[in-house]
Write a structure and sequence with these properties.
mainly alpha
Amino acid sequence: MIETILRGGVAGAAGTTVLNAVTYADMALRGRPASEAPSEVVDKVAHDVGHPVPGAGETLENRLTGIAALTGIGVGCATGVVVSLLRGAGIRMPWWLGGIVTGALAMAGADVPMARLGVSDPRTWSAVDWTSDVVPHLVYGTVTYGILTASECHRCHG
């Protein structure tokens, strides 16, 4: 069980690194700013639970940005753990389908809180907005699921 959890966390961390690289490449190529939505989610959740992030102005914005980035890493690693546990329970898909499902789970982990908190409404997103969200998550899912599949094959055959 611990090995399954660790394998999932490592796969999710690798997938998160690739997701971040794809996102930053998109920002560099198109000259677009980073999304402020993750920081807004952190701020709303912190206020809703009665523990607002301390600080004001630039200090507060920097803290929110840092916490939001750490939260994204946490979602990526946790998604890897969940998928690894599901595979351990016998839910196994072809790599391409597993990649899509894993990416969709991670995307839901990021987008559902934004929508539920009113930070962003995906129904109003443009095709470019959706592409900027879907592509990195599909790459995340493919890398994460691919690592899980490959590490299990190596363990069984190596």
